[in-house]
């Protein structure tokens, strides 16, 4: 059997549109991606290893992936609750809040980054109540059951990275879930209640299982976005070597270094890090995809 | 278990969906709630199920002798079937049916083998023995509705409530399922209330029909009774076709029907006798304007000579051929039996 059957397709001009799709995809996605690999292949194995797996790079992978994962996880939970509230409860100001959800999409990331830094730094609106050097903790101490609490640093710490990633990832989860929740008829909960299920049972036996595929999609989108995010993070992270440098920041640093030093294979150390990032993201997203497929098994007709 | 709803009023904002409604469903009967869209059928059914509550201070709901007005739906022992099935899409057919048993508290929950046996029995009952492993997305509409019914029956409810259970199905499947439901009811005699706005459906399978209109119950009776002896103009117009004949009209039976000076007589098209004018006898003189003779029953439109409108008459094809009726013929009309005239409205 040939790949494209000889039968006339329902879509007119299938050949043409398929050709255009492939051309467009190559131009926009595949060629730039392959350039990353081709550039990197100019390095010897040892050079590659040194560029991509030294201690500083490893630290950046760790903080980037862990923060992205945590941020996407938190968004997965609270984004779901937010979407639920926005769909199910008509409250005054719902439209305004609904519009606000898109803000992280629309705001230039640098603006978001600077705003977050300003808010969470030791003099900021929130930072001054949290930061160890802020107005509150610089004079007070909280003593809880013998545990001394001297404040937490948000700006210029891994926590700040997490906060920025949560901010930019939220709309992905909310916007993925809203249509799915709209489709969940209230009758499902009523059916569960007439069958004797408690509200809690209706929630975890009827509603949540039907939301899982969409939550996973939202999680994957938020996670992917957080991994690649640069603009809103570089200000709040503080970029301390081995601590709060995110991988995209390392890539840019390496580009600049390579420019300045006139390296043998220009940019190759930067693309080496990019390759690691790319492969790791791909594997993770692929796993999430498998999980999603499994959770959707009942939808196949 | 009988159901008694007394003086139920339900308002949504300032809209009254149910206005002091009373309903009694005798134990073991199949009752149809029939009425036009918006008349409050679903609202009444949901109040019986406990999915909705009647207005504060209005009446109560009894199951047998037990007052369940304030009992939550899960504790009332009702089986509820929704128009759009409301099956749990992420669960297989068997898991859907077992749901009500599995959510019980451990002390009341049957063991796994008992649940499996019960599911098997219900799958057999709804004639879907081999489809227990499928998901709802893989079933036809009629099959889904039967699964929804089995799921409701699994918890052995005291009453079964069905809200337009066949409303989303095509005509043929509807008819089959309707008969199936009637047979099923004859076997297990579970008190059942069944909402529909299809009069044919209601008249065919119900022991008793409750006709609702504009938040009120208009009439209650066995199907033949509500069809033959409607007590309100609404029921007359709602059930079957009816002529509204302006009085005075000489087609009424002398003696039994008091000829009114003015008012309206409600006469079904098949309750009117039609003969050629020259074959004599009494009746209302009129002229045939249209004959529609496709199918076993011929529909004839006749214009009254006194100019007070058109009367529809239904005749058998055999009779039509026998008297050789043509358009333009002069005829006499007469009712076959006493009819309701002039309701005090
Ligand atoms: N939750 C609600 N909020 C406001 N109005 C409602 C609500 N539920 C029902 N109504 C109104 O109450 C009236 C009766 O509704 P109900 O659903 O009982 O009608 P029905 O007889 O079942 O009609 P149908 O045959 O179309 O299903 C309708 O006018 C409807 O708009
Ligand atoms: Mg309804």
Instruction: Pick out the low-confidence regions of chain A.
Output: none
Q: SSE order of chain B in H/E notation?
A: EEEHEEHEHHHEHEHEEHHEEEEEEHEE
Number of domains of chain A: 1
Please outline the major beta sheet of chain A: 2 strands, antiparallel
The number of helical elements of chain B comes to 10
For the largest beta-sheet of chain B, the strand count, sense and barrel status come to:
6 strands, mixed
Structure description:
The complex is a heterodimer of chains A (301) and B (345). Helix content of chain A is 69%, strand content 2%. Chain A is mostly helical and 301 residues long. Chain A has one domain (38-105, 156-300): MetI-like fold. Chain A has a two-stranded antiparallel sheet with strand order 1-2. The model of chain A has no long low-confidence stretch (mean pLDDT 88). Chain B contains 10 helices and 18 strands. In chain B, the strands form 4 sheets. Chain B has a 6-stranded mixed sheet, sandwiched between helices. A 5-stranded antiparallel sheet of chain B has the order 13-17-14-15-16. Chain B has a 4-stranded antiparallel sheet with strand order 2-1-4-5, covered by helices on one side. In chain B, a hairpin with a 5-residue loop joins strand 15 and strand 16. Chain B is elongated, with a radius of gyration of 25 Å. The two termini of chain B are 37 Å apart. In chain B, 39% of the residues are buried. The model of chain B has no long low-confidence stretch (mean pLDDT 87). At the A-B interface, helix 9 and helix 10 of A face helix 2, strand 6 and helix 5 of B. The structure holds adenosine-5'-triphosphate and magnesium ion. The site of magnesium ion (MG) has 2 residues of chain B, from helix 1.
Topology:
The complex is a heterodimer of chains A (301) and B (345).
Chain A: H1 14-41, H2 45-52, H3 55-88, H4 94-100, H5 103-106, H6 109-120, H7 127-130, E1 142-144, E2 147-149, H8 158-183, H9 186-194, H10 199-228, H11 234-237, H12 247-261, H13 268-295
Antiparallel strand pairs in A: 1-2
Helix pairs in contact in A: 1-13, 2-13, 3-8, 3-10, 6-8, 8-10, 9-10, 10-13, 12-13
Chain B: E1 3-12, E2 15-25, E3 30-34, H1 41-49, E4 60-63, E5 66-67, H2 73-76, E6 78-81, H3 93-102, H4 112-125, H5 141-154, E7 159-163, H6 171-188, E8 191-196, H7 199-205, E9 208-213, E10 216-221, H8 223-228, H9 233-238, E11 243-246, E12 264-267, E13 272-276, E14 284-292, E15 297-304, E16 310-316, H10 317-323, E17 330-335, E18 340-341
Parallel strand pairs in B: 3-8, 3-9, 6-7, 7-8
Antiparallel strand pairs in B: 1-2, 1-4, 4-5, 9-10, 11-12, 12-18, 13-17, 14-15, 14-17, 15-16
Bound molecules: adenosine-5'-triphosphate and magnesium ion (MG).
Magnesium ion is lined by residues 41-42 of chain B.
């Amino acid at each position: 059997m040939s790949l494209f059957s000889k039968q006339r397709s329902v879509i007119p001009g299938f050949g043409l549109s398929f050709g255009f799709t492939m051309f467009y995809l190559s131009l926009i996605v595949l060629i730039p991606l392959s350039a990353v690999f081709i550039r990197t292949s100019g390095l010897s194995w040892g050079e590659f290893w040194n560029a991509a797996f030294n201690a500083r790079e490893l630290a950046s992978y760790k903080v980037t992936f862990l923060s992205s994962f945590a941020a996407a996880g938190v968004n997965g939970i609270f984004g779901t609750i937010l979407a639920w509230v926005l769909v199910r409860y008509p409250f005054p100001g719902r439209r305004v809040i609904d519009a606000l959800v898109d803000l992280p999409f629309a705001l230039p990331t640098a603006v978001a980054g600077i705003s977050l830094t300003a808010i969470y730094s030791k003099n900021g609106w929130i930072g001054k109540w949290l930061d160890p050097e802020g107005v509150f903790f610089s004079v007070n101490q909280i003593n809880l059951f013998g545990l001394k609490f001297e404040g937490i640093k948000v700006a210029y710490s891994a926590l700040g990275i997490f906060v920025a990633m949560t901010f930019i990832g939220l709309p992905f989860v909310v916007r993925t879930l809203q249509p799915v929740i709209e489709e969940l008829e209230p009758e499902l909960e009523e059916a569960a209640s007439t069958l004797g299920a408690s509200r809690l049972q209706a929630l975890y036996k009827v509603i949540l299982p039907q939301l899982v595929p969409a939550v996973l999609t939202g999680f994957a989108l938020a996670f992917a976005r957080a991994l690649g995010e640069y603009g809103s993070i570089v200000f709040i992270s503080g970029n301390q070597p081995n601590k709060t440098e995110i991988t995209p920041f390392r890539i840019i640093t390496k580009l600049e270094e390579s420019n300045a030093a006139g390296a043998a294979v220009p940019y190759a150390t930067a693309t080496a890090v990019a390759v690691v990032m790319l492969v790791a993201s791909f594997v993770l997203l692929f796993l999430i995809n498998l999980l999603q497929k499994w959770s959707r098994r009942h939808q196949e007709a | 278990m009988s159901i008694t709803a007394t003086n139920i009023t339900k308002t949504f904002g300032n809209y009254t969906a149910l206005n002091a409604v009373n309903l009694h469903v005798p134990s073991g009967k199949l009752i149809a709630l029939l009425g036009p869209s918006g008349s409050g059928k679903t609202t009444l059914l949901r109040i019986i199920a406990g999915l909705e509550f009647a207005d504060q201070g209005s009446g109560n709901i009894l199951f047998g002798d037990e007052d369940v007005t304030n009992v939550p739906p899960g504790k009332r022992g009702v089986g509820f079937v929704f128009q759009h099935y409301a099956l749990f899409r992420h669960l297989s057919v068997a898991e859907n049916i077992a749901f009500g048993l599995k959510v019980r508290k451990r002390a009341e929950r049957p063991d796994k083998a008992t649940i499996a046996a019960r599911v098997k029995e219900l799958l057999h009952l709804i004639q879907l023995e081999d489809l227990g492993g499928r998901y709802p997305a893989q079933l036809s509409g009629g099959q889904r509705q039967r699964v929804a019914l089995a799921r409701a029956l699994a918890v052995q409810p005291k009453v079964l409530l069905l809200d337009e259970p066949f409303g989303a199905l095509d005509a043929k499947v509807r008819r089959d399922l309707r008969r199936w439901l009637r047979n099923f009811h004859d076997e297990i005699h579970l008190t059942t209330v069944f909402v529909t706005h299809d009069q044919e459906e209601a008249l065919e399978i119900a022991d008793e029909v409750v006709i609702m209109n504009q938040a009120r119950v208009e009439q209650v009776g066995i199907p033949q009774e509500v069809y033959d002896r409607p007590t309100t103009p609404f029921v007359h117009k709602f059930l079957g076709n009816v002529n509204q004949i302006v009085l005075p009209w000489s087609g009424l039976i002398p003696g039994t029907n008091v000829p009114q000076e003015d008012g309206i007589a409600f006469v079904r098209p098949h309750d009117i006798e039609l003969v050629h004018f020259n074959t004599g006898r009494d009746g209302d003189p009129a002229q045939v304007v249209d004959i529609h003779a496709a199918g076993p029953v011929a529909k004839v439109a006749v214009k009254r000579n006194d100019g007070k409108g058109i009367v529809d008459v239904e005749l058998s094809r055999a009779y039509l051929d026998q008297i050789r009726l043509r358009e333009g013929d002069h005829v006499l009309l007469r009712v076959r039996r006493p009819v309701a005239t002039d309701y005090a409205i």
